[in-house]
Design a protein that fits this description.
The complex is a heterodimer of chains A (275) and B (318). Chain A has 275 residues and is α/β, with parallel strands linked by helices. Chain A is built from ten helices and five strands; from the N terminus they run αααβααβαβααβαβα. In chain A, helix 1 crosses helix 3. The chains are: A alpha/beta (275), B alpha/beta (318). The interface between A and B is medium-sized, with 33 and 26 residues. The structure holds thiamine diphosphate.
Chain lengths: 275, 318
């Protein structure tokens, strides 16, 4: 099982992850950089911050914690990590979306370490509750982590599961809401206000906390609460910036699925320290 | 239609037409479940009271549309194809269909249009599931001119309609004849004698390419663009296909219940017998997640131009 790293190692890992994702998306000319960069620290903390329990090289270890990136357009945030922990050959990263390649735009069950298909928003938490309930049935101690988009929280299915998970006291289930306050057409609070998500999850019976989603202190502190919630499922509202790390993409919805031009590409590479 | 003008995205043409009409009629409302378009930016800017963001909440979007339609509004709902069909199918059935409300459902990226996004974004079943709905009209344009003709009808006589838009830009097939073709429900986009290739949407263009190859091989293939899948005039089609020996349908759908089924059913119902050699080409059940663009997928699923050529040859030589 993986061990905990120090925060500065984690910062380096997050930068490494952003660089890997950049190269993959630019080679494929396809993918959602801002959505991935929004949850880069969350993914990094999960796998390199000693949160997720896994066995390197053994994706099917039944004792592993389950991780679901429910905002499936950002599921690729896990690909470099899953290769790094030996689930599949890192050469697959170069074949992202290519015919014959393992890794697609959206994650699916072909890929070791991916627990379910994604791409349609609003399914991951329900599946996650299924994993959590099954663990309880089987008397297993693995936990399930589900990363949700805040825009995804518009889907009613999220709240159907929220109610269910609280009722069944699924304290082995963690929802991380990537609260970047953007979806495709603009700012969530201007389109249909999501409001105080911490209070909403709490009202649905979850132990709910709000943290800075780009701070490892914040994110790891929240994950520390697992098992200490008085039997409640844990909701972490992670305040984030969509496109974090690329100045001209940060907080701008129009970049959701746009490719940069040559000049912007050069600027981004400089900001990522790729040159 | 000026051939020199570059073909455009169907969605922009459709939304522009809705926007133009909405400027004169404040009862026209446009609801998006977080899908955009260049033309939508204008509508949002100029007519903020007639644009509604439903949230990424397709089921809610449909129920909301029903309430608005029951209050006299002419409603256009807009989302990616998988999410405006299967995701909210029960809402469409229970409120829009069951009350026969004048709501137009505009789907973008039908079939395998969202190629790299794979199975969750594909709609290999949308024709079958939508045409199964009580009272619906199913329209599937293969170019932007036909898309504009359809939206003209949707604006002038609002009804329960499902409009299937491609997310790709295609060469224009129609000009002034679009409205007449729409009235009949299908258009003969290439005349022929031996095999009639029936297609819709994106695959009309592959069928045309196939017909070209077939001509060089000595097979005269006609191409029929099936624009309105439901309701469908089987008698008119039977009449139009009288001179052919064979009919080949080809589509970017699972075969069960899709356009090929609709056409065969209509021919049977209209004529009581089928006098042609027949073949349906479509996607196999249990197709899998694979990487690749739309052409790659067509080839993999056996619905690409060479597959159409082969199937037509087999019919012609049989
Ligand atoms: C059910 C469903 N509806 C619509 C979409 C199209 N879509 C993909 S990403 C996205 C925006 C998601 O926003 P959010 O969940 O906040 O994620 P982020 O902003 O972090 O990318 C939408 C509408 C989808 N994938 N699934």
């Amino acid at each position: 099982m993986a061990t905990t790293h120090r925060i500065n190692d984690l910062d380096a890992k997050a930068l490494w992850l952003r660089r890997q994702l950049w190269d993959m998306v630019m080679a494929a000319k396809n993918g959602h950089i801002p959505s991935c960069y929004s949850c880069t620290e969350i993914a990094t903390a999960l796998y390199y911050g000693g949160v997720v329990r896994y066995t390197p090289g053994k994706a099917d270890d039944p004792t592993r914690d389950r991780v679901v990136i429910s905002k499936g357009h950002a599921a690729m945030v896990l690909y470099p990590i899953l290769a790094d922990i030996g689930y599949f050959d890192a050469a697959e990263l170069d074949r992202f979306t290519k015919p014959g390649g393992l890794l697609g735009m959206y994650a699916d069950l072909r890929i070791p370490g991916i627990e379910g298909i994604s791409g349609s928003l609003g399914h991951g938490l329900g599946m996650g509750a299924g994993f959590a309930l099954a663990a309880r049935h089987n008397d297993e101690s693995h936990r399930t982590f589900v990363v949700l988009g805040d825009g995804e929280c518009y889907e009613g299915s999220i709240w159907e599961t929220a109610m269910f998970a609280a009722h069944h006291k699924l304290d082995n289930l963690v929802a991380v809401v990537d609260r970047n306050a953007l979806c495709i057409l603009g700012r969530t609070e201007e389109l249909v206000a999501l409001g105080d998500l911490r209070a909403k999850w709490q009202a649905f019976g979850w132990h709910s906390v709000e943290v800075d989603g780009h701070s490892f202190d914040g994110v790891l502190g929240a994950f520390d609460l697992i098992g200490r919630t008085g039997g409640k499922p844990l909701a972490i509202i992670a305040n984030t910036v969509k496109g974090k790390g690329i100045s001209f993409m940060e907080g701008r919805s129009e970049w959701h699925n746009k490719m940069p031009n040559a000049e912007q590409m050069a600027k981004a590479r400089t900001e990522l320290g790729l040159v | 239609m000026d051939a020199a003008v570059k073909p455009r995205l169907m969605r922009d043409v459709v939304i522009e037409a809705i926007c133009a009409a909405a400027r004169k009629d404040k009862d026209i409302l446009f609801i998006s479940a977080d899908l955009g378009a260049v033309a939508l930016d204008d509508l949002r800017r100029d007519l903020p009271n007639q644009f509604i963001h439903a949230g990424i909440a397709e089921q809610h979007m449909i129920d909301l549309a029903a309430g608005l339609a029951l209050s006299g509004k002419k409603v256009f709902c807009y989302a990616m194809a998988p999410f405006i069909t299967a995701r909210c199918y029960e809402q469409i059935k229970c409120v829009i269909s069951s009350m026969n409300l004048p709501v137009t459902l505009i789907a973008v990226g039908v079939g395998l249009g969202y190629d790299h996004a794979t199975l969750t974004h594909f709609t290999p079943e949308d024709i079958a599931c939508m045409r199964a709905l009580n009272g619906i009209e199913v329209l599937t344009p293969s170019d932007e001119v036909m898309a504009a003709a359809i939206v003209y009808i949707a604006l002038s006589s609002p009804a329960f309609r499902y409009l299937r838009l491609d997310r790709q830009v295609f060469p224009r097939l129609y000009g002034d004849d679009a409205m007449r073709v729409l009235e009949i429900g299908f258009g003969i986009v290439r005349p022929g004698k031996d095999v009639a290739i029936l297609a819709c949407g994106a695959l009309v263009h592959k069928a045309l390419a196939a017909a070209e190859i077939l001509a060089a091989q000595g097979v005269s293939a006609g191409v029929v663009d099936i624009v309105r899948v439901k309701p469908f005039d089987g008698a008119a089609l039977a009449g139009a296909l009288k001179g052919y020996r064979s009919i080949l349908t080809v589509e970017e759908q699972l075969l069960e219940g899709a356009m090929g089924s609709a056409v065969m059913e209509a021919l049977v119902d209209a004529t009581g017998k089928l006098d042609w050699r027949l073949k349906r080409l479509g996607m196999r059940d249990r197709f899998e997640v694979v990487n690749g663009d739309r052409d790659h997928l067509h080839s993999l699923y056996g619905i690409d131009t060479p597959d159409i050529v082969r199937a037509a040859q087999a019919l012609a030589n049989g």
